[in-house]
Amino acid sequence: MKGAKFLRNPVASIFVLLFTTKSTPLNIEFTVLGTGSANPQLDRNPSAYLLSLDNEYILIDCGEGTQYRLLEQHIKHTRMRHILISHLHGDHYFGLIGLISSLNLNRRTEPLTLIGPPGLGEILTLQFKHSSTSLFFDLNFVETDPSVSQLVYEHPLFSVTTVPLVHRIPCNGYVITTKPSPRKMRKEMMPENFPIPYIVKLKNGEDVTDELTGKVYKSVDYTKPGKPAKKIAYCSDTAYSEPVIPIIAGADLLFHEATFNNSNEERATFTHHSTARQAGLIAKQANVKKLIIGHYSSRYKEVETHLIEAKEVFENTLLGNEGLKVKV
Q: In 10 A of CB 120, how many CB atoms?
């Protein structure tokens, strides 16, 4: 079988594109594809979210029917090169084999990187075996350790770090951090016919000495800072857990599950889930810029109460609804 390379290196750079770091800011958008929890709901789909960094698409969780949500949102599967799975409860990964199968039917040849918990590789291998599936593309699997926070993936545009969560089975969230853009030249300071190699070094933060004149060009004098990194945090199924705070601190955008409202706080504790207010507390203590809540229990026909309770402690909260798109 081609593909299905199940790698367990805790720091992996599986698929590296041959381009230099962008000097212009990334166009970053977070799309909500599914906000339901375990029980099927007619008006809510299982967990799935898409983070786009220009033309790089990162799918985060892949509940049943996710490929249909992608079609609805006119999201091109050819741009999807990374999938992150938080844990092995079905509402977070039952759509994965269907999506991979469809990619294969469309004769995809570009590698796909899959990051997820122990056991996911075994499940996929078994499904491929008994369906006699041979992939036309490399499927590179990076196995996480849900008990610790680790840098698990490096890409020219971003890095992925895991967030240990508190759930009934091993579960981790993710922090995707974009790479900052290079420093920018102060054009008014540049001498005429300034050598390009000197410009490259200065933009990389290095000082340069002219071999002919001995003059030193300091990066801090001839350049100005580029655009800073952006941080997007995803906390799927979890009980209220303050240890996540330093890992997600300062995130530009946080998605945090809010399965229950305050009236069912005891149920949330028992099932290792969070209330909307608890999601707001995490956002506030982590000093994030914006919070999206979702993963609603099927017992709630409307979730406006969730939004009210979260906003009581963290004002900049958005109600996650299918199709919501948020620029970062």
A: 20
